[in-house]
Structures are given as C-alpha cells and as structure tokens.
Amino acid sequence: MFQNQLNDQLSQAQTKAVESAKFLTQVAVQSAQELAEINQAAAKDAMVAAQEASTQLLAIKDPQQLTKLAQPEAAQDVAKYAAAYQAKVNKVMRNGSKEVAQAVDASIDDARADMVKFVKEATKTAPAGSEAFLSAFKTAFDTSLQQFDQVRATATDAFASFEKNIDAVMANIQGEFAVAKPATKSRKAA
Q: N or C: which end of the chain has fewer CB within 10 A?
C-alpha cells in the first residue's frame, strides 16, 4: 500500500515538473516572439530613416545644406528612438523574468507541500518502537525543509540580480545614445 502511494506521488511530481517545463518554455517563446517583433519594427524604422537620410543627402546642392543636416536635433531624435526601443526591450525582459520567478516560487511551494504530505503519510504507518528513529528522521526532515527557504531566497536574489543587470545594460545603452545638451550660460547681475 505504501509503495502505491509513493508511486502516485512520484507520478504527480513528474506531471507537475512537465507542466512547469511547458510553462517556462511558453514564457521563453512568448518573450522571444515579442523581442523579435520589437526588433523587426526597429529594423523597419531604421530602413525608413536611412532612406530619408539618403534622399536628403542626394538633394543637397551646396555645403551649407549639409551642415543643416548635422544639427543636434537629428542626434536627439536618434536618442529618443533608442530610448523608446530600450524601454520596450526592458519591459519584455522584466515581464518574462517576473513570470519565471512566480513559476519557480510556486514550484518550491508545491514541492515543499508534497514532501510534507509524503512524510506525514510515511510516518503515520510506522511500527511501534520506532519513535526514536522517527524523531531523528523528523528533525532531519525539518532541517531539509529549511533548504526550500534557502532555495527560494537564492532564486529571489538571482532574479533581483538579473533585473539589476538589465537596468545596468539599459543605462549603458542609454548613455551611449545620450545627446549632450548645450550648456546654458547664466549671467549674474553686477
């Protein structure tokens, strides 16, 4: 009878693991699709901008017109476009990370509950005279349950670190595209 319960619980655990893997795969595919759409739109916009720039360059008749094309406003437009692209990528990455973190958290809770249920069932049918062994086993089991909390804390730290890395990368990208604003001169009244 105990063997049947063990087999059922192992089967349920495998089913949950497969469902979790499917969910994580779905999240990864969805994030990849969203990033591909963002990149496709960015490539399309870049092609349009390149065509417009080529048209403007071909229309230049004198050197003064060339200097008008190289104005700070053009660089600011590029910076704004890069910042918008960055924000879209950042949103997709954060949403995917959040869904994975929630799935990991739920898996930890499920695994912990399954372990507690299994140990309760196993110890309920223990023969008389095994109290000392059961006490030692439960102590060891309680210690192992604490590992679930450590795994949860490690996973939480990993996801927080991932988000910090995304922020750092995005800040670096934003810094690359930032346009220096001209300094304003202030005059003090004498």
A: C
Cα–Cα distance, 118 to 80 (Å, whole number): 57
This prediction has a pTM of 0.62
Collect all residues with Cβ–Cβ distance below 8 Å to 162 and sequence separation of at least 6: 97
- Contact present, 144 and 119 (Cβ < 8 Å): no
Torsion of CA 142, 146, 151, 152, to 10 degrees: 110
Q: How many residues does the chain have?
A: 190
* pLDDT tens track for 25-67: 898 899 899 989 998 998 898 888 888 878 877 887 877 777 7
* Residue of 55, 56, 49, 40 lying closest to 75 (CA atoms): 49
